[in-house]
Design a protein that fits this description.
mainly alpha; three-stranded antiparallel sheet; 7 helices
Amino acid sequence: MLASSRVSDLYACPFCREMFAVGEVSVCPHCDIAVKPMAELPPSYEAQILEPEDQTPPEDEIVPWTYTGRGRGPLIMLSLVGIAVFFAPWLHETAPEVRTWSGFRFAQALPWLWAAGVGWFIMLGLVASRRTIRQMRGSRVAVAFLAAMVLMTVVVRLIAAVPTHPLIPIVVQWGWGLYAAGVLAAMALGFGLRFGGSVEDMPTRQSRPPGETLH
């Protein structure tokens, strides 16, 4: 009778998975557990090992917004500090006027210096929106380019000659904000080139069969 029954008509013990025909028993004689329709039971452990369900690859698992591993946290922090430094003192003028220019004020006078501020804003949005390892690794070039853009802007500003006037003495001194922007950009470049980390030992929040290769 059992051999001729369809799977949809069979009942099974949730524990030992011994099958019974409809109405044959109500409780498993071996486990003393109420039998249930076979179609309602999840796959057994052995079945999951032999035919595992489709799972999201570790590199495509979405990490929390608060995830700071694989360079994501440091790059977000560097971007935020870089934005703040853009509004810090970049230049101190003592003659012919006494005034201090921030990176923002400098960019209003020299538009090409906007690269040192815009680069941080774009990097912050780019890094914060990368929430899988694959996305992080795929953004390495873009993040490194943005960091290099900020770094080159600072370097060019430092080596470019300050305009002079034959009759009016101009005395200026670079502020700490300009140097800080360069250091932050160099650090971001290093982290950007390794953004996403290695494909070895990738973290996963899914239960996987023992011995599964995660790369």
